[in-house]
Amino acid sequence: MHRARNAILSAFLATGLLVAGCSSADTANLPEDAQQLEAAFVQGKALNASFTDARIAGMKGIAENELLRLFINEETGAIAVLNKSGGEIWHSNPLEAETDPIATGVNKGLLSSQLKIDYYNSFGQVNSVNTFLDSVAYKQVNYESIDSGVKVTYKFGKAERSAADLPLMLSVARFEELSGKLDKAGQRALRIGYTENEDKAAYVRNDQALNGLQLDRAFKAFEDAGYTQEDLEKDMAELNFTQDSPAPRIFLASIEYKLDGDSLVVKLPSQEIQSPSEYPVSSVSMLSYFGAAGSEEKGSIFVPDGSGALISFNNGKTKYPAYQQAVYGSDQAMERVENAVNEQTVRLPIFGMIRDGNAFLGIIEEGAAAATINADISGKLNSYNYVYPTFNVTNKGELTLQANGSERTLPKFQEHPMKSDYTVRYAFLTGKSATYQGMAEYYRQYLESHGGLPESKAESGEEDLPFYVQVVGSIAKQKHFVGVPYKTLEPLTTFKQSQQMISEMKERGIANIKLRYAGWFNGGLHHQVPDDISVDGAIGGTKGLRSLASFAKEQGVDLYPDVAILTAHTGKGFNEKEEASRSLRGVPSSFYPLDLAMGRRDRTESPSYVVSPKRVGTYVDAILKDMKGFNMSGISLRDMADQLNSDFRKNNQIDRTESEDISIQALNDIREANMNILADGGNAYVLPYLSDITNAPLTNSRYKLEDQEIPFFQMVIRGKIDYTGSPYNLTSYTNVRQYILKCLEYGSGVYFEWIHEPNYKVKDTAFSNLYAVNYEQWLEQAAHIYDEVNGVLKKVQNERISSHVKLGEGLFKTVYESGTYVIVNYGATNATVNGLTIEAEGYVTGGEQP
Question: What is the value of pTM for the model shown?
Answer without folding.
Answer: 0.88
